[in-house]
């Protein structure tokens, strides 16, 4: 494992890249800026390494382009309606950075912070203290995010946190996946191990209703091409410009399969496993044309995000899994992205 200077932020902070490599030649680069997965190179069916995540060559591009590419998201992933929540009888008002709502931790979420990094064996551990009042969240939060690239070509991410006062937390990773490395993702096949999804309002906030997926454009119970139904005449799709919905994972076991993404072109299959109850499927609807790594152009629907998490806006819906972390409780979740070769056409 090696490290290198990736660049300097506008405020003069040095950004370091940390390289992970396994015995089979797979490689990952993680930045201490936002705990960002800057690259993830795995073998395709021909044995060539393919970078399966979108990203940029310079720190300036990460700062300027937004989009949370590859970053850790916190304190709370996804949207909080009206940019406020109540906890223990007190209302906390947050930054409105998505219309009237709060998105992905606010104006300076975890994705824009420099993290401390320590190498432990074959893992990289990134940590930081989020002080009480940061983005107006209660309680100081000590967070550790651990990245491990295993010898069976899996990127494992574990999230741990402790707080000195009751607070809310919902951590995820916002990598944009394209198993061909470039081009449209609509020809990829996707399977989601969920028979229900959350209904969204016009602002892509869950209404609280859990809708059946079977027989709808949201039915990914069997693998199908992402693009097959994405432009269907369906209010839920037109509201968000495609998929930007939380799926309710079916399997009650702790570590479960959430989704399987496959490209017949590259032969790469990615299985997502997680301890989380939900999976946000985002089809890159708002990706505007831009230059990415190695001069590759990115555009709308050129990648898909599979974000494992507690349901969005959970504080507004008591029947959702709770994002509350109490003082003296420990937060721990795990998500694994497993890569394999499959020449089988799965859609």
From TrEMBL:
This is Aldose 1-epimerase. It comes from the Bacteria. Pfam families: Aldose_epim (PF01263). The active site is at 174 (proton donor), 307 (proton acceptor). GO terms for biological process: galactose catabolic process via UDP-galactose, Leloir pathway; glucose metabolic process. It is an enzyme of class 5 (isomerase). The keyword Signal does not apply.
């Amino acid at each position: 494992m090696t490290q290198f200077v990736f660049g300097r932020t506008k405020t003069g902070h040095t950004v370091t890249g940390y390289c992970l490599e396994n015995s089979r030649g797979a490689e990952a680069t993680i930045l201490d800026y936002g705990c960002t997965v800057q690259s993830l190179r795995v073998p395709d069916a021909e044995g060539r390494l393919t970078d399966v995540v979108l990203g940029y060559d310079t720190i300036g591009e990460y700062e300027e382009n937004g989009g949370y590419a590859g970053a850790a998201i916190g304190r709370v992933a996804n949207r909080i309606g009206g940019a406020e929540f109540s906890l223990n009888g007190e209302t906390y008002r947050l930054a409105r950075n998505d219309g009237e709502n709060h998105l992905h931790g606010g104006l300076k979420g975890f994705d824009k912070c420099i993290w401390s990094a320590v190498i432990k064996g074959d893992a990289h551990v990134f940590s930081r203290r989020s002080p009480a009042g940061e983005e107006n969240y209660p309680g100081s939060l000590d967070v550790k995010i651990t990245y491990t690239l295993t010898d069976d070509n899996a990127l494992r991410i574990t999230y741990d946190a402790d707080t000195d006062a009751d607070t809310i937390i919902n951590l995820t990773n916002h990598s944009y996946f394209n198993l061909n490395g470039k081009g449209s993702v609509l020809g990829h096949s996707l399977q989601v191990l969920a028979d229900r999804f959350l209904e969204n309002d016009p602002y892509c906030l869950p209404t609280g209703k859990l809708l059946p997926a079977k027989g709808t454009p949201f039915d990914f119970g069997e693998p199908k091409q992402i693009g097959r139904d994405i432009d269907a005449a369906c209010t839920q799709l037109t509201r968000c410009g495609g998929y930007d919905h939380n799926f309710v994972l079916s399997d009650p076991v702790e570590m479960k399969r959430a989704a399987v993404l496959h490209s017949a072109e590259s032969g790469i299959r990615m299985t997502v496993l997680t301890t989380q109850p939900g999976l946000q499927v985002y089809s890159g609807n708002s990706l505007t044309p831009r230059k990415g790594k190695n001069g590759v152009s990115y555009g709308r629907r050129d990648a898909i995000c599979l974000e494992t998490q507690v349901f969005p806006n959970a504080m507004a819906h008591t029947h959702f899994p709770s994002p509350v972390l109490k003082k003296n409780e420990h937060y721990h979740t795990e998500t694994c992205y497993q890569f394999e070769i499959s020449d089988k056409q799965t859609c």
